[in-house]
Design brief:
Elements lengths: L33 H29 L1 H11 L4 E4 L4 E3 L6 H27 L5 H25 L5 H8 L5 E2 L7 H4 L2 H17 L39
Antiparallel strand pairs: 1-2, 1-3
Length: 241
């Protein structure tokens, strides 16, 4: 005669009315209120990311003032001369016209790398919202720098400027950005590339999963599914309960 496996006053864990182990009641893990808490936390995270992205966009856009001032200061001037009836290039073989675009591109690359490094330093979490804010800020900053440089540079009215300086006097041509389509995107592309590289090298890593012990098996015991261990069918006799 053997003893019963399950006492009469304790329900079996395999019964149809047994509560699941992970159910923690209302609001607990697996409970009725857990979904609402998760959605609320996700909504708060999204709003926080959007706020940070807006701040990044605004700050990077304002940095375009510095790019515009440096462009006016460092860009080579294109010399022009007037004979009284027309305006000509003073040095027809000069490369000053290409130098203005090259100066803007190099400065935009430097500003893109610097802005990406600063954003990564202060916002280690990263995220798509931060990257989008960085890209938009680079585009708006480039537009602001371009317009500011044109405004602060030499006069755009070449005819009036030639008449003002007189015949045979060399004067500077207006500051122009000829390759606008590519030059205005350099800041954004450079910033995203640098930010991606910094995130890949120094960004936070996801924690490694921890493998817990299999329930009911001690360390160093038989591996489940190998056909040995308690409850596994063997050729020997089953000890009495």
């Amino acid at each position: 005669m053997t003893a019963p496996l399950t006492p009469p006053h304790q329900p079996s864990s395999n019964g149809p009315w047994h509560a699941p182990q992970k159910w923690g009641g209302p609001g607990g893990p697996g409970g009725p209120g857990s979904g609402g808490l998760a959605e609320s936390q996700g909504e708060n995270d999204r709003r926080s990311d959007l706020r940070r992205a807006a701040v990044v966009t605004a700050l990077v856009t304002v940095a375009g003032i510095g790019l515009g001032l440096l462009w006016v200061w460092l860009a080579p001037r294109v010399p022009l001369i007037s004979d009284g009836s027309a305006v000509f290039l003073s040095d027809s073989e000069g490369e000053e016209a290409i130098g203005a675009d090259g100066t803007f591109v190099l400065l935009a690359l430097a500003f893109g790398a610097l802005s990406a490094a600063l954003v990564f330093w202060f916002q280690r979490r990263g995220g798509i919202a931060i990257v989008v804010g960085l890209a938009l800020g680079g585009l708006f900053g480039s537009l602001l720098a371009w317009r500011l440089g044109v405004w602060l540079g030499p006069s755009q009215d070449v005819v009036a400027h030639a008449r003002a300086v007189g015949k045979g006097v060399v004067f500077d041509a207006p500051l122009r950005l000829r390759a606008k389509g590519a030059a205005l995107l350099v800041w954004s592309i450079g910033a995203m590339a640098v930010h991606l590289g910094l995130t890949a090298l120094f960004g936070p890593r996801d924690p490694e999963p921890e493998w817990g012990a299999f329930p009911g098996w001690s360390a160093g015991g038989p591996v489940p599914g190998t056909g040995t261990g308690p409850g596994a069918p063997t050729g020997g006799s089953v000890p009495p309960a």
